[in-house]
Design a protein that fits this description.
With 220 residues, the protein is an all-alpha fold. It contains 10 helices and no strands. It is a multi-pass membrane protein.
């Protein structure tokens, strides 16, 4: 068993790095787009300082539509867009397109949920002293939800690791692709077992680091 694992170690290392690349890109997009989207969902809600029923409903509809599509179907649905964007539909960069689209609404809802825990009285006090919407978001909302943002990012990362394994079924690269090519198609149970262990270790590591950072941020 060990001889077989050692023999495929270069491919395993490459698959691991491809998985990290896919997940990192999707997480970056989730922060850049999902975070503002989540804040928008919160501040346009009823009774908030940027209340806007139309914007709230449209943004919520878009997010719900994307979240309602199973990731495997989303992968196939976005193939034309991926081809247009990158001129290819295979490899980790191509898979990161679908992962990013899936990550945006997932993280946005977590951000919105975290923001709902903020004491509304603090926001009302800021409005009373003349704080602008941007000042409230920057100085009150974001600092207050910081631990929740870290925890949400951890949950999103773990979900993306699972999604990245699915991306391997259509040539997305990563550990999932390795498991399919060597473990499933060649009936190599050793490789299948090894890839599962690697994914478990990766998830546990991400969870540990996420919890650690969230605790540090909470104490500040």
């Amino acid at each position: 068993m060990m001889d077989r694992v050692i023999a495929i170690l270069p491919e395993l290392n490459q698959a691991f790095l491809e998985t990290l690349l896919m997940v990192s890109i999707a997480l970056a997009v989730a922060i850049l787009i999902g975070l503002p989207f989540g804040i928008l969902l919160f501040v346009t809600d009823r009774g908030l300082f940027l209340e806007n029923v139309v914007v709230k409903r449209i943004a919520g509809l878009i997010i719900n539509l994307i979240r309602s599509v199973p990731f495997v179907i989303l992968l196939v649905f976005l193939l034309p867009f991926t081809q247009f964007l990158l001129n290819t539909t295979i490899g980790p960069l191509a898979a990161s397109v679908s992962l990013s689209v899936a990550a945006i609404p997932f993280y946005a809802r977590i951000v919105e949920s975290s923001a709902r825990d903020i004491d509304k009285g603090v926001i009302e006090a800021a409005i009373a002293v003349g704080a602008s919407p941007w000042m409230i978001i920057r100085s009150i909302i974001l600092p207050e939800v910081k631990p929740g943002l870290i925890t949400g990012l951890t949950i999103t990362a773990i979900s993306l690791i699972g999604y990245s394994a699915m991306a391997g079924t259509i040539g997305g690269g990563g550990i999932g692709d390795l498991a399919i090519r060597y473990g499933y198609y060649r009936y190599d149970n050793t490789i299948m077992f090894t890839t599962v262990i690697v994914l478990i270790v990766l998830v546990q590591l991400v969870q540990y680091l996420g919890d650690l950072v969230a605790r540090v941020v909470s104490k500040r």
